[in-house]
# Entry
Amino acid sequence: MEKLIEQFSLGLFFWMLVIFVGLIFLLKKFAWKPILDAVNEREEGIRNALLSAENAKKEMLNLQSSNEKLVAEARAERDAMMKEAREIKEKMINDAKSEAQAQGEKMIAQAKAAIESEKNAAMAELKNQVSTLSLEIAEKVLKSELSNTEAQSKLVERMLGDAKLN
Amino acid sequence: MVISKKPLHFIVALLVSVLPMISSANNSDSTTVHKEVAHAETEGHHTEESKDLKTEIKEYIDHHLLDSYDFHLFSWEDDSKVAHHIGFPLPVILIDNGVQFFMSSKFHHGETVAESNGNFYKLYHGKIYKTDAEGTITYDAEHHVTNAKPTIDLSITKNVFMMLVVSVLMFLLFSGLAKSYAKNGGIAKGAGRFFEPIILYIRDDIAIPNIGHKNYKKYMSYLLTIFFFIWFLNMFGLTPLGVNVTGNIAITAGLALLTYLITTFTANRNYWGHIFWMPGVPTPMKIILAPIELLGTFIKPFSLMIRLYANIVAGHVVLMSIIGLMFIFKNWLGSSLSFFLAFALSLLEILVAALQAYIFTMLSALYFGAANEEHHHEDAHH
# Structure
């Protein structure tokens, strides 16, 4: 201990304090402050970059989900449109069908009416013809009867029988 | 490892066998001496020669550990016994009858008397004493020098010179690093970038955990400076330049004093409250604890001072003793063994150099942290 105290040099102690304190202040101004600031800034930059990357990732995810939503919406819309189109088509076909049917029925009815009237006309004609024929026959019968009574009556009989078959 | 297993075991065994010699290397009447005496006798040499070598080595180590007025690199004696000293002188500044300023080359390594403005000074065993024109040194009964010392000695000694060198080196290194950030867009470049991880380590693993996020910034300059200052000086101490700055009590005292002053002057109410009126203990205990706690504030920096001093001095003494053993053994086994031991110890000392700087910084940060602790201690009791 005595040797230690003897070794203690006041001059060295003085210079040590002067040099060291001076060094602290010099380095503080010219080295430590700029170094620590630069390092802090860099770390801040890295932190910000990481944060923004994270944000970008989140945004990407958001975008992706909204994209999916859009696609789904579009698909649903398309489905709805197709369904509508199909319905319209069905309806048109049905309408066309029912109209055609109605038309056909109308035409058939008209045809039937026409046929009926034609038939009636034909019947009337036929009746006229028959009556004319009958008159002619009757005339002929009457003429032959007038020549041969017996033969005339037989003819009348046979003719009448034929007419009934008709 | 490059060394194969077998020789490694061999080396370890040899190291263990030589250990007793190391521990007593400084002791003049140790087993080494007996061995050496026996060794010298068998070889037919005089015992005195080896003893001379031993004292010479001891003096050399003692001399190395102390501060010096010139920067001495090495010296030798030529055939005609004339000593040659290689090195350069440093300025001597004495405040003694006015300011005396001269170069230490005037002392001629203690061989002549230096004269300055009618005052005479002589270098005797590394210390400056006032003498008469003939350089007479007077002794008392215990062979202590009774000559007066200069009033105030502000010489730029070897240690001061080395501190200046380290300061300039640190300034260039770290201001260069600081500038490189601006130039390279926030990325370090140049030699300084090797120290960037250490700066970050001191911030993230020493300052922030010990002091806390809120207050750590104001201590960063001190912590960084003290770490690199101690580390660089420790490393310079391991070079063949032969400087022992951090192994000087005045230096470690100065560093510890600064830690103490910063702790004391930045301490908050809570810190003083814990010292003078410890919360959570009965009043009589508070009165007993106050002086103990107050003493503790002085013991903490004192332990910092002694720890750094003792570690560095011990490292230097052991390392140089082992190197000295090489010259004492003078045979192929002992000398090569000493060499390997010295080599291993040098590697250990490099670790110690960084470790002691780390410990000093770490403990300083711990004390600053205690001085800044917030008032949450009492809440823990409830």
